Every structure is written in C-alpha cells, then in structure tokens.
Amino acid sequence: DDVVTRYSKSWERRNHHHSKNRPMDALPMPRSGGKDSSSVPVSGGPTKHVGHTKHIRADGTIEGELGNPGFSNSTNRNTTHGVCMTCLDKKLSRIFDRLQKLATRLDSLEKSTIKQDGFESTQDSLATNVKEMMKSEEEQRDDVNNTLQGLIGSIEKMRMETREMVNKTEARILQKSSMADAELLQNFRNLSASSELKERTELKEEIKKVRMALESARASAKNQTARLSNLTKSARKASSAMDMMMKTAAAPA
Hints:
By secondary structure, this protein is mainly α.
C-alpha cells in the first residue's frame, strides 16, 4: 500500500491524470458497461484512459473492483485520480523487458570475461614458453663458449708441453754430443720443426671445426630469436583482437 500511495502521489505531481482542479468536461464520465473494457463512456467525449476500467485512487483503494465498477462521479468530483492500473501494467511490462535485455547483456559480458580469462591464461603459458626457450638458448650459448675455451686451453697446454720437451731434449743433446754430432742436432731440429708444423696444421683444423660449430650455434640462436619474435607478434595481434571483442561486447545495445 505504501508503494502504491507513493507511486500515486508521484503520478499526481506529474499531472498525468485528471485532477480535481480541471473542468468537469475533462473528467472521465460513468461507463454503462461496468468492467467491460469495450463499453463506451456517456456524453462528455472520450478521455485519455477510455477503456481503462481499473484505477487506484489517491487514498489507495482500487476503483473498478469490489462492487465499484468503472468511474464514479462522486469520486471524480471529490478526489483526485491516482494511478491508472492499465497504464501501470504497460509500464511494468516495458520495465521487465528492459531488465530481461540487461540480464541477457550481463550474461554475454560474463561469457566474454570467461573467454578473456582463458586468453590471459594462454598468454601466460606462451610467455612461460618464450622465457624457457630464451633460457635454453642462453644455456646452449654458454655451453658452446665453455667448450671453445676448454679446447683452446687444452691446445695451449699441449703446445707448452711439446715446446718444453723439445727444449729439454735439445739441451741434453748439446751436452752429450760433440761437433761431429752437429748434423744429428740439425736433423733433430728439422724433425722438431716438422712436428711443430704438423701440430700447427692440426691446431688450425681443430680451430676451424670449433668455429664452424660456433657459427652453427649462432645460426640456430638467430632462428630461435626469429621464432620468438613471430610468437610475440602473434600474441600481440591476438591481444588486440580480444580487446576489440571486449570493447564491442561492452558497448551499449
């Protein structure tokens, strides 16, 4: 009753219905057919609510029910009409339709949110994979560098040991040989030079192999970097597309 009374008074303030301050020819006239909406009002001409047989008076009672069919002349003269129930039903129907549309819209937004959550999860997984690939690339690069440094160190150590052995042997020969052994000493030096040349050749081959392995590792790293760049671009495009979908879904109907 309080809600009906408040709605009735609000309706009166808008002056939508006939008030007691209007002339009598503007007031609804008695109906000859009671609650039948097809009944025609008597003399006085049609009003805005012709066919609307059920009203709520300002005092909260319902006109058109409980033995009081149609409009009452005495009521029209002495009180102000409150709410037209027929109009109120139409307004409530429109409100319910609007609420149904809003509920549908909300459901659509919730589904879009679920899709976005799934997309964000995919993005997180992609970022994790990219980080793991970058970490693997760095580990491979470190392995190649460590292998190269170890090989260079081993070669240098072998060269030093060979040189030291040659020097010791040469000193021993000089000590034990005489001038007649000069030819033998020269032959030994030639042999040593030949051995050193062979060693240098082998060293160059090893360095060449190491360089080729390093170039292959660099090419592999470059390809992986290109793949990571493509994955990042694809992720950005997918993110932009999802943002556009969210903006479209969030736009008012």
